[in-house]
């Protein structure tokens, strides 16, 4: 009888003993709506999360068309991170179609949005500061600018919101998420100082950026750069002949030396403006998406550094 009891006890204990030594918990599945946001989530989540991105490198979230595979990603996720501010107009439909039970987290919560004023006399001009307030004139007639990540100060708000959401979904990872967020925030502080130092070397009157669509408003307000774009805050906007003609006149009158391509927009408009004004194409800027791993902007920090190098090279010469 004693032997039988010992055998039964041993059998009962076997599942615990037979488990793989040092087995790790499964990573928490989360989704980010686009590549820049996905990079933030990976930095904060670290080894505890598995991040799927809907709009990948060099993708344009303004005009993205979700796929059945995207619905599967949402259905499997515990948390879904979105930019908000009207950036992902397709997300609500996608979430409903997927039947996801995930928590939807708006990463821009707490950020003061940049409103695009409707101004026919100065269409498309953004950036700079006047009397302590950002100037903003938008092509899409009064919409909200969603490109908040272009300000590094705002990027830190994204990080804090992501940290809090991950802690809420996975309380056991609180210390890891807090440590990751703190370490990454320190890197962002260093990046902010780097950007300010680099742009300070460009004469103020030369700090003008001309791009296809109005994605650098927060950047301009943060770093004293004037932004000019023939299109609005969305790549869905189309520049009118009047807007293009105005920008061509402005480039010639102010002798603006360079115009810039974007990784998510068709280059033809900027190439036309460059041809008609004699301004050189200063290079490619990364606005709404990261580059792929082989490109110069595969992370948020590398993206900002790449943009600042491009601007400095074109505007300082």
Can you summarize this structure?
Helices cover 44% and strands 17% of the residues.
Annotation keywords:
317 residues, alpha/beta, four-stranded parallel β-sheet, 44% helix, 17% strand, disordered N terminus
Strand content: 15-25%
| Rg measurement, Å | 24 Å
Structural class: alpha/beta
- Say how many strands there are: 12
What is the end-to-end distance? Answer: 93 Å
What percent of the residues sit in helical stretches (DSSP H or I)?
Answer: 40-55%
Average predicted confidence as pLDDT: 83
Envelope shape:
globular
Strand order of the largest sheet: 2-1-3-4
Give the low-confidence spans. Answer: 1-22, 118-142
Secondary-structure element sequence?
A: HEHEHEHEEEEEHHEHEHEHEH
Major sheet summary line? 4 strands, parallel
Number of helices: 10
Description:
Helices cover 44% and strands 17% of the residues. It has 317 residues and is an alpha/beta fold. The strands form 4 sheets. It has a 4-stranded parallel beta sheet, with helices on both faces. Strands 7-6-10-9 form a 4-stranded mixed beta sheet, with helices on one face. It has a two-stranded antiparallel sheet with strand order 5-8. β6 and β7 form a beta hairpin. The N and C termini lie far apart (93 Å).
């Amino acid at each position: 009888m004693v032997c039988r009891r010992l055998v039964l006890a041993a059998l009962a204990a076997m599942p615990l003993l037979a488990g793989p030594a040092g087995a790790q918990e499964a990573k928490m599945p989360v989704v980010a709506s686009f590549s820049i946001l996905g990079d933030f989530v990976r930095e904060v989540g670290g080894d505890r999360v598995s991040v799927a991105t809907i709009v990948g490198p060099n993708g344009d979230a303004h005009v993205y068309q979700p796929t059945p595979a995207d619905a599967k990603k949402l259905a499997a996720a515990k948390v879904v991170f979105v930019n908000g501010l009207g950036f992902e107009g397709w997300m609500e439909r996608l979430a409903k179609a997927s039947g996801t039970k995930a928590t939807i987290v708006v990463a821009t919560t707490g950020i003061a949005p940049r409103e695009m004023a409707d101004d026919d006399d100065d269409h498309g001009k953004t950036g700079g500061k006047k009397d302590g307030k950002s100037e903003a004139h938008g092509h899409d007639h009064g919409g909200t600018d969603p490109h908040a990540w272009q300000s590094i100060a705002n990027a830190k708000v994204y990080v804090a919101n992501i940290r809090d959401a991950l802690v809420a979904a996975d309380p056991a990872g609180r210390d890891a998420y807090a440590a990751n967020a703190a370490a990454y925030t320190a890197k962002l502080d260093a990046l902010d100082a780097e950007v300010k130092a680099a742009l300070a070397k460009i004469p103020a009157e030369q700090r003008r950026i001309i791009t296809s669509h109005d994605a650098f408003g927060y950047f301009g307000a943060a770093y004293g750069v004037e932004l000019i774009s023939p299109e609005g805050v969305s790549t869905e906007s189309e520049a009118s002949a009047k807007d293009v003609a105005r920008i061509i006149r402005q480039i010639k009158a102010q002798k603006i030396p360079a115009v810039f391509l974007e990784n998510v927009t068709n280059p033809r408009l900027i190439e036309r403006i460059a041809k008609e004004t004699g301004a050189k194409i200063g290079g490619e800027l990364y606005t709404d998406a990261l580059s792929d791993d082989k490109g110069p902007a595969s992370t948020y920090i590398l993206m900002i550094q790449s943009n600042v190098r491009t601007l400095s090279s074109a505007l300082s010469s």
